Amino acid sequence: MMNGRVWILTREDHEIVGWFGRNGRYPGQFIWLHSVDVDSKGNVYTTEVNTGRRVQRFVFQGLED
User: Fold this and answer.
1) 25 lies in some domain
2) Quick check: helix, strand or coil at residue 25?
3) Residue 64 included in any domain
4) Quick one: which of 15, 21, 50, 65 has the fewest CB in 10 Å?
5) Which of 36, 28, 30 lies closest to 53 in space, CA to CA?
6) Furthest CA-CA distance within the chain
7) In a domain, 1, yes or no
8) pLDDT 10s digits, 3-61
């Protein structure tokens, strides 16, 4: 994560193919990101600490061409 964004990269060559999120306290935003995990379907889970104290799930909907 950088600048409040989670960057999406290809496994093969680490090419940036997308990003999501921004700094903040609302859904889809991050303030104290602690960990990130991805399940087998490509869904992303984030946890935050300090005043955020929450878990967010982002459902993979595919990549645009």
Assistant:
1) yes
2) coil
3) no
4) 65
5) 30
6) 38
7) no
8) 788 888 998 999 998 889 999 989 999 988 889 999 999 999 999 998 778 999 999 88
Cα four-point dihedral sign 54, 23, 62, 44:
negative
Non-local (6+) Cβ contacts of 34 within 8 A are: 47, 48, 49
Amino acid at 8: I
Model pTM score: 0.79
Whether residue 3 contacts residue 41, with contact meaning beta carbons closer than 8 Å, is answered with no
Residue 47 one-letter amino acid: T
Identity of the amino acid at 23: N
The one-letter amino acid at 60:
F
| Structural domain boundaries enclosing 54 | 6-58
Question: What is the secondary structure of 5-42 as a DSSP string?
Answer: BEEEE-TTT--EEEEE-EESSSTTEESSEEEEEE-TTS
